[in-house]
Amino acid sequence: MGEPILEVKNLHVHFETHDGTAEVINGIDFTIERGETAALVGETGCGKSVTVKSIMGLLPSATIPEGEIRYKGEDVLSLSDAERHSRRGKEMSMIMQDPMTSLNPVLTVGEQMMDVLKWQGRPRLSLSKLVRDALSTGSKAEHRERAIEMLGEVEISAPERVFESYPVELSGGMRQRVLIAIALLSEPDLLIADEPGTALDVTTEAKVLDLLDELVEERDTSVLYITHDLGVAREVSDRINVMYAGEIVEQAPTADLFANPQHPYTRGLLESIPTLSTGIGDGIEGHLPDYTDPPVGCRFVERCPHAEPACYDAYPYPRQTGSDHATACHLFDGPPARERHESLAADPVDIGTAPWLVAGGDAPGDVSADGGTDQ
């Protein structure tokens, strides 16, 4: 296997607030191989968008006290702003979360797409150079042709009309297709899709996800999907990283995670999904911890039905529970997934075995691709 296209190692992201330092991301690790599609799954507020914006360099107010973000082997955190800017939008691209607000309302779709083609990866210019460059007509026709071609590739039936339209004249699904077209204009090697269907109805979301999956497969693009929906993650990803309160609590290939969910949070997410036989799930009681005063041990401890006193004090480092499966929970044994946790592994915490393993229980209901469950 070649070098991964993206490696995130021990990433910490902090924000200064009136209440103190918010430790939003707390030492996460994950890898995306070339051509692989990975998902980052978790409830709203767990740090998914902060993670991807840190990768893209879009968090000027954040502090990253520790960690590495390696893109094609190069630590992007050590690059200058200009060097990161040259990669952003050209080699690494992002589909923003809300199609209703991510497009500029006072520019036509065509103007916005041509701006991307013209300026992506280029250094920032002075005002005089910007005006002079804007007045030049050099490759305008080529850019227009490329933009309309891309609109056609995202299955917009009248690309020339949409090219001349303002965002307000388009439906939500059409705007989302425009955002996908803009993100793929530069043929990026890494595409980050931040909940691309969150503002759409279920039918439109399914069509958009199918389209995006088809487009990235044709281009062999590596993709990081951000979603709170395990059904979507199952449909689109090769590998899933489950995130809770700024930590990745479980990692596994998609099929393995659904066949053998281990962390109580993962199981809670699966059990929360409505089923035909049981109706709407109960959900997970409680709420995310305060990032300015997070628990010393497990961040899920206050909501975990299997928590023991030791869970409040002992950090549940991720441990290998299978050949390619890691879980950050004291209910499971296994060698540390990261070398930096070897000292913690030398002093193991025993809170017993996962109750569902003792009882011989099955995994939570099988989640279908549309987000429902088949039981």
TrEMBL record:
Region called Disordered, residue ranges: 355-375
ABC transporter domain boundaries: 6-270
One Pfam family matching this protein: ABC_tran
Membrane protein topology class: Peripheral membrane protein
Places the protein is found: Cell membrane
Keywords for the protein's UniProt record, in alphabetical order: ATP-binding, Cell inner membrane, Cell membrane, Membrane, Nucleotide-binding, Translocase, Transport
Protein name: Oligopeptide transport ATP-binding protein OppD
GO cellular component term of the entry, any: plasma membrane
Disulfide bond keyword on record: no
SUPFAM superfamilies for the chain: P-loop containing nucleoside triphosphate hydrolases
Natural source organism: Haloferax massiliensis
Gene Ontology biological-process annotations: peptide transport
InterPro entries (alphabetical): AAA+_ATPase, ABC_Ni/Peptide_Import, ABC_transporter-like_ATP-bd, ABC_transporter-like_CS, Oligopep_ABC_C, P-loop_NTPase
Molecular function via GO: ATP binding; ATP hydrolysis activity
PANTHER family: ATPASE AAA-TYPE CORE DOMAIN-CONTAINING PROTEIN, OLIGOPEPTIDE TRANSPORT ATP-BINDING PROTEIN APPD
